Each structure stands twice: as C-alpha cells, then as structure tokens.
Amino acid sequence: MAMIDLQQVGVDFPLFFAGDRSLKRNLVGAVAGHTSAQRTTVRALHNISLSVQPSARTALLGGNAAGKTTLLRVMGGLLAPSEGRTGIKGRIVSLLGTGIGVDPAFTARQTIIGQGLLFGFTPMECRRRLTYAADFGELGDFLDRPLATLAQGLQVRVALGIAVAFEADILLIDEMLEHLTPSFIERVIAFIDTGMPPGSILVLAERSKSLLERVCTQALVLNQGRLIDQGPMATITARYDTHLNR
Amino acid sequence: MQDPALPGMMRFALYAGLTDVQSSFRRTILGPLWSTIGLATLTASLGLFFGTVLKQQLPEYEAYIPFLATGLIAWTFLANCIHQSCSLIWQFLNTLRHNRMPLLVPVLRVMVRNIISLGVNVAVTIIAIRLFLEAAPPALGPLLGGLVLFVINVLWMSYLAALLCARFRDLPQLIAWGIHLAFFLSPILWLEYNLGRFAYLVQFNPFSWLIALIRQPLLGLPTSPETWMLTTVLAGLGILLCVALGRYAANRLAYWL
User: Fold this and answer.
1) B1 falls within a domain
2) Which domain holds residue B246?
C-alpha cells in the first residue's frame, strides 16, 4: 500500500558558486580554515509535516517559489531532506519537468524498457508491458524515436505510459499535463479515476484550477516553503485565492 | 527511501550498455571493432617506433609487440572507463536530477559497454598471438580470474572518479592529466628492466599490478602470487572506500547536481 509520510522536513539548498565546485579552491579554503558551514544556503522547505494516505488524490497549491517542486522531489525520494524524516512506500513515477526518462539518447521504447528494468521487472516482463505503455501513450511511430527529439507533450505521454504499464503506486506530476491535448488529458483523468492501482497516491501540481478540482480530493497549500494549509479540496479551494494573493 | 535494488540496476546497466554497443553498429559495419582496429594500428605504430628506439635494450624484438599490445589493451579499458565516468555527470545531469537513479547505475553501464570492447580485444589478441607468434598459449584460467579482478578494480576507480567529479567540477581535467602521466609511468611502452637499478620502483605502481593481471596470462606467463594478493587487497580497499564515500554522498549528491 502506498504511503508518504513527512515529519518536520526542511530543505536547505547550498548555493555553489564557481569556486565552491573547485577542488583546488576547497583545498586552499580548508587550509585557510574556511568550512562548508560558511557556505550560503537557501531554505526551500521549512518544517513540513504531512501524511498522504493511500488512495489520496492530492493537489499541491502555491505560487512561484512556494516550494512545490522541492516538496515533490522529496516525496519522490529524489532529494533527501536536510532535516526531518521521510517514510515513503510504493513504486514511484515522477513527472518533474525536464529529465524524463533514463537517458535522453534512448528511444521511447528503450526508455520504457529501461525504466521497467530499474523498477526490478524482468526483460521479458518489460517487453510485455511495453505494449500497455505504447497503447496508453498512443506512441505509435514515435516509439522508436529518441526521447530528446520528441515534443514535450510526447515525452509526458511516454512517462504516463510508464506509470500505466508498471502500475505506479505513487504518481507525482509537476505542471506537466499542460503540455497535453485536451483529449489526452481526458484519457489521463480516466486513468486516475479508474485505472490506477488500488491504494495508489497522486500528487498533482498544476496551474489549472478546474483540472485540480476535477481530479483531486485533498489539497496542500505551500507558501514560501511552509505548509500553510491542508484539507479537503473543496474547503481549500474556497480559501485558495486568498492564500495565493496574500 | 530505498534506491532501486541491485539486480534491477545490473539488468538496466546491461541493457543500456548493450544498447550503446548496438547504437555504435548503426550505419557502420564495423561498429565497436573500430576500437580493436585502432588499437591494432596503435600497437603496430608504437611497436615499430619504440621497438626500433629500444632495440639495443630489448632481448627479443618479437616479444615486444605482444608485450605492448597486451599493455595497451588493459590501459585502453582502464582509461576509457575512468574518462567516461568523469563526464557522466554532464551527460546525465537532468536525468539524475529527476530520476531515482544512483550514480552507480551509469557507471555500471560504462563498464558494460567497455567490457564488450575489452572482450573483443582480448579474443583478437589471443588469435593473433596463436597465429603469428610462437608464444606459449594463453593460460585461460588465470586470464579469466585476472580479467574479473581487473574489472572490479577499474569499477571502483570509475565510481570514485564519477562521485568526485560530481562534487568537484575541475577534477575531470586533473584526472585526465593523472591518467596521461600514469600511462608513461607504467610498464606499457617500456619494460621493467629498462629502468636498470630503479626497476624495483615498478612494484610500487598499482597500475603495473593491474596490467600484469591481463598481460601475464595472455602471454602464457605465470601471474605472480604478489600480483594476485596486491590486486585483491587493492580491490578490497577500493570497494571499502567507495562504500564509505557513497554513503557519505548518498544524501548530498542531489544537492551537488
């Protein structure tokens, strides 16, 4: 059963300037007594505690630089928090901007098979499930094109095809559905409503309020890296504008 | 939060490595065999040149070519793996940022594609030695054992290089320079006894131990117990270092990208 549990999570991004990435400068700095504690950091998330329960369809709301992408990266296990604890269970598929797939030079077919192998499926099982991914994503002739040459919308369809084929328990989407055509969005909504495995979790950050209201039952509201509100979607929607415009 | 399990990572690395080799065959008949042809050309050119230069100091000119070829085979694999691992971070920056993929995965992939080239080079060398030289037949048991130990050592070196290059962006140039220097300081172009009274210094060069793992059995010569012992200890220490640094970097790597 999928689960996301964060306790007092904080994320500090160290700002690496050109000199910080140099071995030579670091060695000289160490001799001179400079420590990494003196490095400038940016606090992206403050003391976030939340629990996303199985079967939740959660909207992530917040303005620019609210910390939505960072929180999604923590939820996806891509970023270990600087402080606090995380408990995440389930097979995760993340659609978080550029970097979809396992190698930009891979074709869509190779990406789907490769991702399946990383999930722990056998090569034979990956090839069998490839058909589901291709069918869902309507990939057709695009299946043998390098991922880097595909339009963003097609790349999103490949990633969603992976979620379908390998039965993602946790699906994290960061403003990626806007690249899809309206008819394909309907297909995605139908999948979220009826096709996702029982107990699976969706966390969705999108600009389209109507899409969020249609899909999500719960909402989290972030502001400047802090979780300022959470609750049922309908309740939060009533306060949503107030929070964002404040 | 657990990273993908090792069997999954291995399967992916194998698949990706084979895909790389398959891609190198696309639109060319020879594909990765270009590496073997390049190596053969290099061996012939360097063999002719250095064989002539060192002629007065070589007991057997004919033995120099296989000595050189086997050294170059080992070195090409080692240098390619480390060089390619240094540039992984640039190649897969976005992919590593947005996917739960440990750095070990692309390193294993680099290893897989180079192991295929190494295998082809070793096979061609065995055939060439049998056909053209009256050398003793290769000792296949020690050769297989030597190859395994050699690859394990290159794996930890490559992982270490990839990890350090992720943190320090000026390191790839430094490592490239180091590999270049190590090439000339290792017994590839020259033989140990060319050093005269300083020949003992070779014993302190870990690269010479690693080269000997492949060279000795390929030439039908025994691999010394010291070589087995030193390379095993080197592999053990290297793996321990990588495990320790890997643990230290596991949570930090995402912030370095």
Assistant:
1) no
2) 6-256
